[in-house]
Amino acid sequence: MTFVILGCALPAYKVWWPFLVVLFYILSPLPTLIARRYSENATSNNQYMELAIFLTMGCVISSFALPIVLSRSPESNPTIKPGACYLTIAGNFVMYSTILGFFLAFDHDESEYSMW
């Protein structure tokens, strides 16, 4: 989050549009959490999990694309500066690696953490 806030609040940038990626941070794990909860009850197939992965990847790709599109808007007057774009993308890498780490650490299927 620090990278995203720096990309918005530094005096050289002063634009809060990159902060919209926080919405994607909130929305990205939700389909997977819902599908895991629902797939525990259904024993037929994995179609819900596949749809959840598709929706999650859409959120992840959108969060990387948003700052790039904002920085590449009309070249004479871009919405955000390239430095803000780079800081937001760095924040994306950190946040999504944290979310991935959460799912790997607390996976209740075959993890050694779940034996407690």
UniProtKB/TrEMBL annotation:
<comment type="similarity">
    <text>Belongs to the OB-RGRP/VPS55 family.</text>
</comment>
<dbReference type="GO" id="GO:0016020">
    <property type="term" value="C:membrane"/>
</dbReference>
<dbReference type="Pfam" id="PF04133">
    <property type="entry name" value="Vps55"/>
</dbReference>
<protein>
    <recommendedName>
        <fullName>Leptin receptor overlapping transcript-like 1</fullName>
    </recommendedName>
</protein>
<keyword id="KW-0472">Membrane</keyword>
<dbReference type="InterPro" id="IPR007262">
    <property type="entry name" value="Vps55/LEPROT"/>
</dbReference>
<feature type="transmembrane region" description="Helical">
    <location>
        <begin position="86"/>
        <end position="106"/>
    </location>
</feature>
<feature type="transmembrane region" description="Helical">
    <location>
        <begin position="15"/>
        <end position="36"/>
    </location>
</feature>
<keyword id="KW-0812">Transmembrane</keyword>
<keyword id="KW-1133">Transmembrane helix</keyword>
<feature type="transmembrane region" description="Helical">
    <location>
        <begin position="48"/>
        <end position="66"/>
    </location>
</feature>
